[in-house]
Design brief:
By secondary structure, the chain is mainly alpha-helical. It is built from 10 helices and 2 strands, in the order H-H-E-E-H-H-H-H-H-H-H-H. It has a single domain, classed as Orthogonal Bundle (Arp2/3 complex 21 kDa subunit ARPC3). Strands 1-2 form a two-stranded antiparallel sheet.
Length: 295
């Protein structure tokens, strides 16, 4: 669901960027005053790597159409909503600048839908269902529901933005909405099942080893499963077929579009490493700025 730069009007891209920045500002302020331990930094960096990795694995959701996890609910369940917003923002930025996945001009739109709306929807569902635990409902059921709601909320907002401010020459609003909502309904159910399973498996690991377990899963997913991902276009690519422009050149040109064959695995490993380094660097910077003693 990575929006290309030409999907919406320039004005809409600018407004969406402003909305995303406004929503992320409280997260950045709270993060500035946080005192993360090394274990916390490792957990956030590993989660970011896993989110990047799962987004590389497309699976069929309809005839000739694929989709992939967004990972916002996964991040919320593992590290909480504020850190999840930071993780999603980092992943989206690396995808745009390094892999030409999503337009740079539409970075604000993608951040708004996947880092703000998707995270907020997942967190909202988890909060609304807190009392389910008192009635004996498994935590996995809450996570699954949050992971279903999260992408549906994101695609609903994107559909609304397109209906109001879609760039001229694109598909009709009804066609766009029909394709996006139908395909993502199937994808959302899959995301719910997969997210709940991942969170349940992480919970089985001893707390001190969870970051390493998540990081190892990211390596296996990005370096292995990505090579057997569906080659079908995703719903957005499908509905926009014939309407578009070439993506901006990425910083690492050899990884444009993630490559093919073994190149996909190499791109995946490179991507999760960059995301982890960015998030780890931010965490280390927080510790230095706040004078946190070694944990």
């Amino acid at each position: 669901m990575h929006t290309p730069a030409h999907l919406l009007t320039d004005t809409a891209n600018i407004v969406a960027a402003g909305m995303a920045a406004t929503a992320l500002a409280p997260m950045a302020w709270k993060a500035r005053h946080a005192e993360p331990t090394r274990d916390r930094i490792g957990m956030v960096a590993a989660t970011g790597a896993l989110v990047f990795a799962v987004q590389m694995v497309n699976f069929p959701v309809a005839a000739g159409v694929s989709s992939h996890l967004i990972g916002a609910a996964l991040a919320v369940a593992l590290i909480g909503p504020l850190a999840a917003m930071g993780v999603m923002t980092a992943v989206i930025a690396v995808q745009a600048f390094v892999f030409a996945d999503g337009g740079i001009a539409s970075l604000g739109v993608n951040t708004l839908t996947m880092a703000v709306v998707a995270v907020a929807a997942a967190w909202g569902v988890l909060k609304l269902t807190e009392r389910w635990g008192e009635s004996g409902a498994p935590h996995a059921a809450r996570v699954a529901l949050a992971a279903v709601a999260s992408p549906l909320a994101a695609v609903t907002v994107l559909t609304g933005l397109y209906a109001v401010a879609g760039a001229p020459g694109g598909p009709g609003a009804a066609e766009f909405a029909g394709t996006m909502l139908t395909s993502h309904l199937v994808a959302a159910v899959a995301e719910g099942v997969i997210t709940a399973a991942i969170v349940a498996l992480v919970a089985l690991a001893a707390a001190p080893t969870r970051a390493r377990w998540i990081a190892g899963s990211a390596v296996i997913t990005a370096g292995g499963l990505s090579m057997v991902a569906s080659a079908y276009p995703d719903a957005l690519e499908s509905v926009l077929a014939g309407f578009g422009e070439s993506a901006a050149a990425p910083l690492l040109g050899m990884f444009a579009g993630y490559g093919e064959g073994v190149g996909v695995a190499l791109a995946g490993i490179t991507g999760i490493a960059i995301v982890a380094l960015v998030l780890g660097g931010v965490g280390a910077g927080q510790r230095r700025l706040n004078g946190v003693a070694a944990a």
